Amino acid sequence: MSLDFRNTNTLWASIITETLKRLGLTTAIICPGSRSTPLTITFAQEKQIETIPVLDERSAAFFALGIAKKTNLPVALICTSGTAGANFYPAIIEAKESRVPLLIFTADRPPELRDCHSGQTIDQVKMYGNYPNWQTELATPALEINLLNYLRQIIIYGWERSLFPTPGPVHFNIPFRDPLAPISDPNINQLKSLTNLENFFDSIPKNQPELPSFTAYSIQNHLQEWQKSERLIIVCGAANPPFPQEYCQAISHLSQTLKCPVLAEGLSPLRNHYKLNPYLISTYDLILRNQQIAQQLTPEIVIQIGDLPTSKELRTWLETTQPKRWIIDPSHHNFDSLHGKTTHLRISVEELANFCQLEADIHHKYLQIWCDVEAEVRQKINQEMKAKENLFESKTAWLISQTLPPETPIFIANSMPVRDVEFFWQPNNSRIQPFFNRGANGIDGTLSTALGIAYRQKSSVMLTGDLALLHDTNGFLLRNKFIGHLTIILINNNGGGIFEMLPISQFEPPFEEYFATPQDIDFDRLCTTYNVEYELISSWQHLQQRLNPLPENGIRVLELRTNRKADAKWRQENLRKLAINNSPSP
């Protein structure tokens, strides 16, 4: 441990760095700039914190987001004053909505240089609105021991607020006076001789606080009500738990205790731990398109684990049938977008499962109907996909779910890739790890987030459309600092395929120019510009060969060229047809 006593700014910056190191910070993303010089110097000199310089602030923020998603630990994000910090905003919104811990440090001019047209100065106080879990402007650095104590404790508090009670972003705005460079100041020597460095950091907690536990009595009351119902389902949306197997085992234990089906979307790890749950339902979106079956399968009780799945069919069905709903999630967020008859148990499903005791095997006909319909619809999907030899969008998700090496992290971009994964991702036992930005559901930062997830990890994959990739091509600037491998499966239909699913697609003009927005980009040349490996995929067999095994280093783009209009027409004609036609009587 060492503090930098060269001047006031270096001392403050080194207290911040040392405090965060002791709290457990491992990674800092630093954008270039002058006003943030003290922070840049101290972070760059700290060997126990990996520091990564990134040119583009928006890309840097999403890269940090990806690392934090993968590690479940806060990542520090540092920039200079002015509009630099404004480029962090989209990632901060996503971090808030998807509950990812980030520590944002925006350097700023001191008070006397504000509101007087001093260069590179904007109002940075609370610049991210209500999105941070907590935000503050630090005092202007000064050589007073009481202020140094304040600095240490406020950083500890910010770290804790980024993790509890719900993970999310925390914003520190830090004014620095000149000199910004580490120029020696003789006035600091007296303070150095009076400071006991070891005692100064003794207050930093070694362990993180724990969330309060529920009593066995309160949980048993809910379990008893659930066990009385024979028409109960568990619904699991997108999830990125730190321990996927334990998460899947907990849901399986709950499902088998209650003898109920588990409707799990493709962004849930459940579909990739299939053997753990005998009652897994993956085709619910297609099943519920058959109105007769949807009515017969109306539940009395729904246990929702975290977010609702993406499926509009499922959401409409739940909104129409209005079953009693329990939402299981330890955070303080409101997960009831349907505003139904809902009870929120702020507890993790892993903790809830500890209260479940398996009873004798009781046959519920309602459960059997779900399982029978799932088997029939899944068989139809497999037959349809095997018969399709031409390259088209929807088969991609189905194929890669069966092709990727075990435990491969995959980042799934928003818009059509997310929908195709929900529709067609086949249950398997590969333990593939899905990642996503489903907090705000935007396409910004797609590539940078995927690179953050892949950083220093095993070989990773991203599934994306062309517009999402083009929206973040500056992410390729990370290539020189990137360690690991990312294969980008690029579905290029020259436009926004998601809009083909909406009523506006029938209005031309203005649909093609203002909604589909084709860009006509040659991705081979684009990849050459960034010195990224590129390959045009010619067949499904070609794609399979490139996905297993995966390389261990570098960034690679595998482009599949598809027909947006034809693929949209196929979905419109076939999604409902894939639902079972003969509806059994419950």
From TrEMBL:
The keyword Magnesium applies. Binds 1 thiamine pyrophosphate per subunit. It is an enzyme of class 2 (transferase). SUPFAM superfamilies: Thiamin diphosphate-binding fold (THDP-binding). Pfam families: TPP_enzyme_M_2, TPP_enzyme_N. InterPro entries: MenaQ_synth_MenD, MenD_middle, THDP-binding, Thiamin_PyroP_enz_TPP-bd_dom. Residues 14-127 form the Thiamine pyrophosphate enzyme N-terminal TPP-binding domain. One of its GO terms (molecular function) is thiamine pyrophosphate binding. The keyword Magnesium applies. Its EC number is 2.2.1.9. Residues 218-412 form the Menaquinone biosynthesis protein MenD middle domain. It catalyses: isochorismate + 2-oxoglutarate + H(+) = 5-enolpyruvoyl-6-hydroxy-2-succinyl-cyclohex-3-ene-1-carboxylate + CO2. It comes from the Bacteria. Its cofactor is Mg(2+); Mn(2+); thiamine diphosphate. GO terms for biological process: menaquinone biosynthetic process; phylloquinone biosynthetic process. Keywords: Magnesium, Manganese, Metal-binding, Thiamine pyrophosphate, Transferase. Pathway: Quinol/quinone metabolism; 1,4-dihydroxy-2-naphthoate biosynthesis; 1,4-dihydroxy-2-naphthoate from chorismate: step 2/7; Cofactor biosynthesis; phylloquinone biosynthesis. Belongs to the TPP enzyme family. MenD subfamily. Catalyzes the thiamine diphosphate-dependent decarboxylation of 2-oxoglutarate and the subsequent addition of the resulting succinic semialdehyde-thiamine pyrophosphate anion to isochorismate to yield 2-succinyl-5-enolpyruvyl-6-hydroxy-3-cyclohexene-1-carboxylate (SEPHCHC). Homodimer. This is 2-succinyl-5-enolpyruvyl-6-hydroxy-3-cyclohexene-1-carboxylate synthase. It comes from [Phormidium ambiguum] IAM M-71.
